[in-house]
Amino acid sequence: MENNYDLIIIGGGPAGLTAGLYGSRAKLRTLLIEKMLAGGQIATTDHVENYPGFMTGSGQKLTEIMENQAKKFGTGFIMAEVTDVHLAGNEKIISTSQGQYKAPAVILAMGTSSRKLNVPGEEQFLGRGVSFCATCDGAFFEDLPVMVVGGGDAAVEEAIYLTRFAEKVFLVHRRDALRATKVVQERAFAHEKIKFVWDSVVDEIQGENLLERVVVKNVKNGRVKEIAVNGVFVYIGFLPNTGFLSGQVQLSENGYIIANERMETSLPGVFAAGDCRQKLLRQVVTAAGDGATAAFAAEKYLEELR
Amino acid sequence: MSTKLFEVNKENYQEEVVGSKLPVLVDFWGPRCAPCLALMPEVEKLALEYAGKVKFCKLNATENRRLCIDLKVMALPTFLFYKSGEVVDKLTADEVTKESVCDRLKSFV
User: Fold this and answer.
1) List of domains in chain A
2) Whole-complex ipTM
3) Average pLDDT over residues A256-260
4) Could you give the domains of chain B?
5) Across the interface, do B33 and A129 touch by the CB < 8 Å criterion?
6) pLDDT value, residue A79
7) Is A276 a residue of the active site?
8) pLDDT of residue B2
9) By CB atoms within 10 Å of each CB, which of A15, A103, A114, B82 scores lowest?
């Protein structure tokens, strides 16, 4: 049966791609299901310089190499959305927009999605100024003022990226210090186009046809002000893409999958890898490590089943 | 086999898209937009499937920025669906998946 595999991986970011590489090299019939973009979130990152062995380059380039490497050893790829899963028992069933797939072992590597601001105007101006992807949309804002919301690596790195186009970049952060890696912080502080708006959160996004201004509130003194910008790039954290699991494996309070050192979840034959797993550090390098471990553990699991 | 999408730009948009007798789908993309590039081969397959029923166009947003802003397209990927010169449907940013494009095409034709 062409829809039967040894190992099915859900999610095509660095965790899933590495699991594909290791699964295929272990001679497991391996299928990777990705709904949109093989490479995952990092593929939309302009600049990766903390993945060892890859000095510098775009996330797209890095994940293209990973994808080709997995394909070279035989990982099958389909672009489909997973609609339902049945993970208990020896035969796991994955239902997708492109049909049903079965395997005795599954690796969950769905990653995370951007957290939204949930303020008035955000939905209205999505695609007309509100963006979650600076590399996709940055060029529209040539010589215009923009805002980045957030204080982590993604926020600060994308603020720096946007200075290539934008006239000015306001970085709005709810605290008085950044969380981003020190070397990234230093670059941002040294950049003349980046203006920091500390201790502040977005209250409302306003405009007519296109986005024109953002109402920002200072959380310490309650003062409200308007900042004239035409774009708002939101990087205020992430939410795990674990909704469709509907409680079949144990999740943390925040919805991340709980897995042990072998990447085993609460269900036999079901493994987790990458950003969707409860863990300390979410980076390409740790995702790749998870993917390798998960595929190795899946291989051992399958050997014992036989 | 895939077919290439018809390339439109600020010079021919009026004639090829707005003036088209067939319904038109315009795929707004950019060379730095990873999701756009990932989706393009799937859109090319759809173009083959809908040949003769829908005209499939693509527009490089980075080279036609002013036109995009006039069309209120400020995010990639974006798909605009035209009938008799009017935009009748739109998919943008994270609404865009292979599934959503397929679904909208079905109700569009």
Assistant:
1) 7-113+238-305 (3.50.50.60), 116-234 (3.50.50.60)
2) 0.89
3) 98
4) 6-17+25-92 (3.40.30.10)
5) no
6) 95
7) no
8) 46
9) A114
